[in-house]
Amino acid sequence: MPHHSLHMCALDRESTKKTKMTPPKLWVSPLAGLLLLSAITAHAGPITFTFTGSVTADAINGCGVVVNCGAVTGSYTFDSAAADLNPSLNAGLYAAAGITFSIDATPFFSSPDGSINVANFAAVDQYGVLATGTASNLSIAVFSFLLTDPTAAAFNSDALPLNASALTPMLPGAFQLNAADDTFQLLGTIDNISSVSTSPVPEPGTFWLTVAFVAAILLRIYVPAPR
Amino acid sequence: MSWFQSRWLALVWAGFSCTLYAVDGVVLIDQNRALAGNVTPGDTAGFPVTISVSGSYRLSGNLTVPDAETTAILVTADNVTIDLNGFSIIGPVVCAPLGPDPASCTPFGQGVGVDARGGGSGKNNLTVVNGTIRGMGANAVFATGKHAYIEKVRAVSNGFTGLGIGGDAIVTGNIVILNSGAGIDVFAGRATITGNTVLSNDGFGIRTSCPSVVTGNVVANNFSGNISTTGIGCVSVNNAAP
Question: Taking the domains of chain A in order of start, what are their residue ranges?
C-alpha cells in the first residue's frame, strides 16, 4: 500500500543520516521498520463476502423471458485495509473487486471493480455495493444492492465492516441490476451475506520492497566504500 | 503496484466513465450511486448528488440524506428533468400537526430535496415529477430559475417551504402537506398552479405573484392563509380554499 512505501522511504532517509553519525545505532531504525512493516502486512489482505438472495422481478420483461426469477448467489472482494475515499465523517467509500452475480447457479453478471458504501447516519445505517459490469447477454449493467438498518444501530462509524456478521441485522436487503440497453431490470432481495475466510497474505510489492530495503542496509554495512 | 491499487485506479477511471445511461439516455440514481459520486462531472462522493449536465435523471431507489443540513440533489445546469419514479428523497425532519395550527418541525436545517438555485438567478427549465420529498431541513424543491415544471410530487414534512419556485412555472397535481414554511411559493408571476392539495403548512398554502392562474386546488388549514396573490392579473377560481 502507498503509505507503507512512504513510511519506508522516511525510515531509509533517517537511517542514512544515522549511518554517518552513529554507526552502532544502525540497526535500530531498520529493525523498527521491519517490525512495523511485518505488523502492517500481516493484517492487510483480501476478504471475500458471498451473498444469496432471489430475483423477485424483471421490471422490463417479466420473469422467465430473459432470466428466471430464481435464486441469486454472488460474491465480492475487498482489502481489509482499504482506504476510505469519502472524506465525510459519516459515510465511507471503499474499493471492491471481483463482483459476481449468478442466477440459479448460472453466471449472469460480473464486474472487475466496484465500490462499497458504508453510511452511519443519525437516523439510518446503510451498507451498499455498486458495480458496473457486463451481463451474460453482453449488456452493460449496473449492479447495486443496499442493506438498511432504520434503527441506525448497526454501525458505530463509517468504517468498513470486515466481518459479514456485522451486516446480519440489516438483512434482508434489496438489489437491482439494470441493463443500460434496457434489456432487463432485475429486482430482488439479498437474504444472506457471509464471509469467506482467507489467510492474510503480505502484498508482493511490499515484500520485495522490504527485501530490497534490508539488502541496501546490509550493503552499506559490509561493503567498504571506495576510496 | 498492489492488487487493490491497480483495481482502485481502474475503479477511479471507471467512476468517471461508468455513469449508466439507459438506452433512452436517462441516468439512473440510487443511494449507492449517490454515495459513490460521479453521477455527472464534478459530483463528489456523498451528498449532494450534483447534476451538472442537462438531461434526464431517474431515481431507481430512495435517497436518504444524513442530516437536516444536507441537500439531496443539487442542480447546476439548465434543462434538467428529474423523475423520482415513485421513490422518495428522505431527510430526518419530522413535522407534526400542532392542534388546529399547522406543522411543528424538528430539526431545521439548510438541506433541500432538489436545489436548483444555482446561485443568483437559478437554473431554468427544471422538471421534477412523480415522487416524494420529505423530511428535508429546508425546502423540498427550491428552483428559482424560470420555466420549472413540478408535477405529482408529495412535499411533506419539510423544515421550510414545500415547493419554492421561480417564475413562468407550472405546478400541478402535487400534494404539499405539513411544511414549516409556505406550501407552494412562486417567487415571480406567470405561474400556472392547478390541481394541487395544499394542507396544514405553517406559512401560506399557495402564494404567488401576478399574473398567475391558481385554479382547482384544495388549500386548507394553512397558518398564514390559504391563497395569497400579489399584484394584478391573477386568476384564482374554483379552489377549495376556505
Answer: 2-42+202-213, 46-196
